[in-house]
Amino acid sequence: MEEAEEEVLAYLAFPPEHWRQLWSTNPLEWLNWEVERRTHVVGIFPSQAGLICLVGLGLAEQHEEWQMSRRQFSAESLAKLNEEAQRESMPALLMAS
């Protein structure tokens, strides 16, 4: 556990508003269920390319839906994250010049 401390506590680098979404695996579980549902309907694929095409199109569709309607993080909390990243990079930029 001590060796994995950095990875386990990586969520602490994000604002507290993001922690709940970072802990949850619900979006991943839902996506896996959706892929399984689509492939189960077809049953047997004629080729690997057919499988990749069907799953790829499904993933692209989900990506579009998440981009348009299902925001994991609010625009305000993302702006806060961007501001914190800029503040952290400023000392490094000042020292380099």
Beta-strand portion reads under 5%
- List the uncertain runs: none
Sheet/helix structural class? mainly alpha
Distance between the termini: 40 Å
Mean pLDDT: 77
The total beta strand count reads: 0
Kindly describe this structure.
By secondary structure, this protein is mainly alpha-helical. 74% of the residues lie in helices and 0% in strands. It has a domain at 44-97. It contains five helices and no strands. The model has no long low-confidence stretch (mean pLDDT 77).
Give a quick summary of the entry.
The chain is mainly alpha-helical. It contains 5 helices and no strands. It has a domain at 44-97.
Can you lay out the helices and strands and say which pair or pack?
Blueprint: H1 5-8, H2 16-23, H3 26-42, H4 48-68, H5 75-96
Helix pairs in contact: 3-4
Feature tags:
97 residues, 0% strand, mainly alpha, 5 helices
